[in-house]
Amino acid sequence: MGASDLTVKAEPSGTRQLRLTVDVPEERVQQAMRKVARRLARERHIAGFRKGKAPYAIIVQRYGEEAIREMAAEELVDPVYREVIESEGLGPYGATSLEDMELNPLRFVYEVPLMPSVELGDYRALRIKPPKVKVTRKEVQEVLEALREEHAILEPAGDRPAKKGDRVRFSVVGRRENGEVFIDDDEAELLLDPDEAFPYPGFQRELVGMEEGDERTFQLDAPSGKVEFTVRLVELFDRFVPNIDDDLARTVGHFNSLKELEEDIRAYLREQNEAEAQRTYVDKIVDALLKGARIEYPQVALDDEIDDLMEDLEEHVQKELHISLEDYIKLTKKSEEELRAELRPRAEENLRRALLLAEVAVAEGIRVTDEEVESYLQSIDLGEGEEGEKRRRQIKNDKEVMDVIRSKLFGDKVTRRLVAIARGEAAQEKGEEVDDEAEQDGV
């Protein structure tokens, strides 16, 4: 017997969500019950019978018809579901849940999340003017100031208290309220700024006024509660900042003059600004496409995206705050449900963008070939000769790394196609390659 002997009622139960009510004929239930009885006869000791030889009536008498029927129903849940999915031509997204089950007559009620649906609209008609990129004198000056600070000359400050602008070297031990050590550094160093909140608000303020050899213990408020620091000031330096001139250019690198340094900075900033402009341009394109698209997805897809954001948050608080997600939730005085609700808008945006880009890739016939992956691997500087080839083989054998590489190449191709479409430079037929020159133009 197959799905043809099942009675199926399908009705929407939400966005991209389907409720399947499936009635299983009694003849099929009886066959399953006899199968269960044979298994029980083989596995259990039935007084007066050798294993596997107890008749059906004895098994039913021993365990009860209701129990046999329930075990048969449990064995039918999955195969019945698979048959219905195949016969109805459904494409489920993720796991299906069994919402209800009636034993006599046997009826299953499944909740089936369907694959997301994306209608792009007339995406090829989209046109957005690309941004113009420029580098201002102010930007160049800011880099010069940073280089000036970076190449400041340090000289021992002598016997005086530490003040704002000094370079200080110190040892530090940080403990939580329970005595646990979370920082132990004998060679810490920073540019003293009492208004700076690094590594904790108020930390640098406590160092002001200390002299070389001084030791100070103090407490501060942190997200995880009170923390205590013991700091010993090891060295104190005056800082002398050089002038912005030809000497600074020669100190920074192989530049003969300040003019050469400024030209190099300008070229660097142009590259950075172009990359940022490209990211902003692509965001505008995607936002415009989202407005013209119709995107639907089941709740479970959004739940999965929120789960990913929760994992990202957990990793962040462990790394930056040195606390667990559970402790972070307690500190924020929010429930996990409230936190998930706050993450929902970002999760919705992430999901809609991902679904849109995936559908564009399908519509445009975009894929990443093995040749493109190999070309990318060859372009990576992994060393010369056999050592370099060894590293490439290691990468090829690492499925997780290869998936990341394919995902990157895929994302790059989709982005280039979107830019070409928005600039009116894409090939007119779907599946055609975008003109190489248009792809390489960037913004």
Descriptive key words:
about 450 residues; alpha+beta; 5-stranded antiparallel sheet; 4-stranded antiparallel sheet; 11 strands; about 50% helix; disordered C terminus
Note down, in words, how this protein is organized.
With 443 residues, the chain is of the alpha+beta class. The chain has 14 helices and eleven strands. Strands 6, 7, 8, 9 and 10 form a five-stranded antiparallel β-sheet that branches. It has a four-stranded antiparallel β-sheet with strand order 1-2-4-3, with helices on one face. Strands 5-11 form a two-stranded antiparallel ribbon. β7 and β8 form a beta hairpin. α4 (137-150) packs across α7 (258-292), α6 packs across α7 and α7 crosses α13. It is extended, with a radius of gyration of 33 Å.
> Level of helix content?
40-55%
Q: State Rg.
A: 33 Å
- The coarse overall form would be extended
Unreliably modeled segments = 431-443
> What is the averaged pLDDT score?
90
Order of helices and strands: EEHHHEEEHEEEHEEHHEHHHHHHH
Treating each run of at least 4 consecutive H or I residues as one helix, how many helices? 14
Extended strand count: 11
Please state roughly what percent of the residues sit in beta strands, choosing from under 5%, 5-15%, 15-25%, 25-35%, 35-45% or over 45%.
15-25%
The secondary-structure class comes to alpha+beta
Largest sheet: 5 strands, antiparallel
Distance between the termini: 61 Å
